Every structure is written in structure tokens, then in C-alpha cells.
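Please, structure for the following, as C-alpha cells.
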Amino acid sequence: MNSTNTPPTPSGDDLAGFSWFNGLTDGERSLWLGLAGGARPADAWVAYKRVRAGLPPTEPAERPVRPVGRPPKPADERLIGVSIRMSPEQREKLRRAGGSDAVRAWLDSLPE
């Protein structure tokens, strides 16, 4: 192993990026790091330069991915405010099965 390895000399663009990042407030740093989708100041600098050039902050393949999971259901598939049709026999069966007064009141409020 060579012990005379020296770190690379920063380019003019690197120095401009250091200066830009060091001049940001904490909120601005957070914003640019979030837009870059990373935690490295160099990524924030690249995102800043892309936005200044009229491009999105990152390449489409590099953009942060949404959390994994099922997408929300469309409004028409949610059960909020949906009425349930039951025959009189079904209602009576539910009423006899017990339940709270609130359930009985709800059953009585359902349309025929």
C-alpha cells in the first residue's frame, strides 16, 4: 500500500458546491437534500444545478420511491356514508342478536 496517496484536489465546481452548501440555512439544506433524495451535500449541489437549468432535481430513475403498500382506495370504494340494504328478516335477526342501543338505533334508521 502506498502511504503517499493524497486526496484529490477539488475542482472549481466542487469548491462552488462547498461554498453554496455552507451558505444555506438548515431549512434550505433540508429542502435540497430532500429534493436530491440523499444525505450527501454533493447530491444537493447536483439537484440545485439541475433545477437552475430547468430540469427536475433528479433523474427519473433516481427519484425517491414512494413507500411500499397498497394505494388508497378511490372515494367511491370507501365504506364511509354507504347505506346497507337488508331485508326485514335480516334486520330482525340482527336486532335479536343483541348489541348496543346505538346499533339498534342505527338499524331503525336504515331505509326500507
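Residues 74 and 80 are 12 Å apart (CA to CA). The chain has a mean pLDDT of 77.
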